[in-house]
Design brief:
nucleotide-binding; 11 strands; Creatine Kinase, Chain A, domain 2; globular; about 50% helix; 7-stranded antiparallel β-sheet; about 350 residues; two-stranded antiparallel sheet; single chain
């Protein structure tokens, strides 16, 4: 059974006003004092963000329990400092980001200017184990058309600097301002992948391999494929669904590679259009079907994803759980829809943030 790990970036906010608070260093210091051996929480680019990483899990119920536990622990540590956490991919309220004290982050700010200061965005990264770099590249080449569907499922960033952007995942539009972000062409082999990464670093435009911000990539730290396309999800069960689908996509792609099935090769230009469509509308309108790359209702595309990965989902015992989670997601809506419904009900973005902070903890 392939193992799966999840990294979530959370927004630190005032529990009463909903304003983002640049208190990550204080929260991390409290966490270290409370548990000197903790390696779960880390700082991010801005002081208003806190990241945690789960351990690799093979059982999705265990992964879900750990995500909930980490969110609650993050909220507990934040509460000791006078703030709380919210699983929001962008701040609905106006914010002036506070750059974390870090030589690498300072380099980014000096190198890229204004776009760096606009990167107060929170994502969900899913690591799925692979047996080798060759298997990993075979997977990356085959999952490309499905990444936009994961974007639509996870979309949780409709608001930016106090206004509705019109997008379900505005985080993705901000993130794609990095020069190395977005969909990729086919790599063909591990050698081809590593040569491409080396060429990118050699240009001097990016600092190092860690700045290869592809929507999915080989992890530089672990023997995994790392999916980086998702917004941080408002509800933990949506994060588990994303992780479940990522593992099933990896297993499906690896099986296709082993039996020699050919790789579909939609161009990067079309993949960018599919990604834009998913970011703009989430699950509310048509997506581009990953097979035909033509518009198709979002529920039908999600059904196609479950069918495409059906054998892998069945083999891991996740088929019923995934189908039920998709049904619930379509009924309830993704995080973007939930945020907009909260604003419609309360009339206040501050209330949206404080309610989302409450929901973040379960």
């Amino acid at each position: 059974m392939r193992t799966v790990g999840v990294e979530e970036e959370l927004l630190l906010v005032d529990p009463d006003s909903g304003d983002p608070k640049a208190l990550a260093s204080a929260v991390l210091a409290h966490a270290a004092q409370d548990d000197p051996g903790q390696d779960v929480f880390e700082k991010e680019l801005f002081g208003q963000m806190l990241e945690f990483a789960t351990h690799p899990q093979s059982d999705m119920a265990d992964l879900g329990d750990e995500i909930v536990r980490c969110r609650k622990e993050a909220a507990r540590h934040a509460g000791e400092i006078g703030c709380t956490v919210a699983a929001l991919a962008t701040s609905p309220l106006p914010v002036s980001p506070a750059l974390s004290v870090n030589e690498r982050y300072q380099w980014l700010a000096e190198r890229y200017g204004v776009p760096t200061w606009e990167q107060l965005v929170c994502g969900c990264h899913v690591h799925v184990s692979v047996e080798s770099d060759e298997e990993g590249i075979a997977v990356l080449d085959r999952v490309r058309p499905w990444l936009s569907v994961l974007r639509a499922i996870s979309a949780n960033s409709p608001f930016w600097q106090g206004r509705d952007t019109g997008y379900a995942s505005y985080r993705s539009r901000v993130w794609n301002r990095w020069p190395s972000a977005g969909p990729t062409e086919l790599f063909g082999s591990a050698e081809g992948y590593h040569r491409r990464v080396a060429d990118m670093v050699a240009t001097g435009v990016i600092l190092d391999e860690g700045m290869v911000y592809f929507d999915a990539r080989l992890s530089a730290r672990y023997p995994t494929v790392e999916f980086r396309v998702a917004d941080v999800c408002l509800c933990a069960d949506t994060a588990v669904l994303i992780a479940t689908l990522c593992r099933a996509l990896v297993e499906t792609a690896a099986r296709d590679w082993r039996v020699g099935r050919p790789v579909a090769d939609p161009g990067v230009s079309v993949l960018r259009l599919a990604d834009w469509q998913a970011a703009r509308f989430g699950l509310e309108e048509d997506l581009l079907d990953p097979v035909t790359l033509r518009p198709r209702p979002a529920p039908q595309v999600l059904a196609s994803l479950l069918e495409h990965a059906g054998d892998a989902l069945a083999a891991s015992g996740d088929a019923d759980r995934a189908a039920g989670a998709v049904e619930e997601l379509l009924r309830r809506g993704n995080g973007a829809r939930e945020q907009r419904l909260l604003l419609e009900r309360t009339g206040s973005l501050r209330d949206v943030v404080t309610e989302c902070a409450r929901r973040t903890q379960g």
